[in-house]
C-alpha cells in the first residue's frame, strides 16, 4: 500500500463545520456547508479590501468585488433564516431538541411572550447575526487551533507521547466521551499553550475619541489592529 499527504486543515474544517452544524443548529454539515464557504470567501474579500488604498465612498462603487460581497451578504443572511424558521416551527410544535439554536430561540420566544408590549426580545435580524457569528468564528478559530496543535505536536514528539498516554489512561481503548474531558489535563494544557503562542484572531478596535495609548496620542475614528501573538511574547527574547 502506498502513502499520500492529507491536508489536515481541510479535514478539520469539515469536522468543525459538522460539529457546529449539529450541536449549535441541529442541522448537518451539508446544510451549513454553503454558509461556511460563503463566509470564508467573504472574509477573504474583506481582507483584500483592507490591504488596498481606501478612498472615501469606494465601497459604494459597483466594482466586481463590491457586487460579489453584497451578493454573499444577502446569501449569508437568507440561509440561516431558513434554518431558524424551520427550528421555530419545530419548537412551536413541541419538539424540544437540545441544541444551541433551539435553546436560544425558546428563550427569545418566552421573552417576547412575557413582554409583548415592551419590545423585549431579539428580532429575526438579530438572531441571524448571532448565528452568522457562531458559524464564522466557531469554525475558523477551532480549525486553526486544531491545525496548529498538530504542527506543534509534530515539533515536540515528547508532548505528543504524553498526550497519547494520558488519553489511554483516561479512556482506554474506548471512544472518549464528554465525562472524560475533565481527566485530560495534559491535552488541555497543550491546547491552551498553542492558543497562547499562536492566537487565531487579532484584536481590532476603533477610537471613539482622542485617546492616549502608551506614548502615542490617537485621534478619534482610528482603527487599531493588534496581533495578539506579539503581545503573548517577551519582546526581549
Overview of this structure, please?
- This protein is 62% helix and 7% strand.
- It has 8 helices and 4 strands.
- It has helices at residues 8-25, 29-50, 64-92, 100-114, 124-155, 157-171, 185-197, 228-231; strands at residues 202-206, 211-213, 216-218, 223-227.
- The longest helix is centred in the middle third of the chain and has 32 residues, at 124-155.
**C-alpha Rg (nearest Å):** 22 Å
- Our measurement of the CA-to-CA distance between the termini, rounded to an integer number of angstroms, reads 46 Å
What topology, given as strand order, has the largest sheet? 1-4
Q: What general form does the structure show?
A: globular
Summarize the structure.
62% of the residues lie in helices and 7% in strands. The chain has helices at 8-25, 29-50, 64-92, 100-114, 124-155, 157-171, 185-197, 228-231; strands spanning 202-206, 211-213, 216-218, 223-227. The model has no long low-confidence stretch (mean pLDDT 80).
Fill in the keyword field for this structure.
single chain; iron; 237 residues; globular; 4 strands; 7% strand; 8 helices; mainly alpha; 3 domains
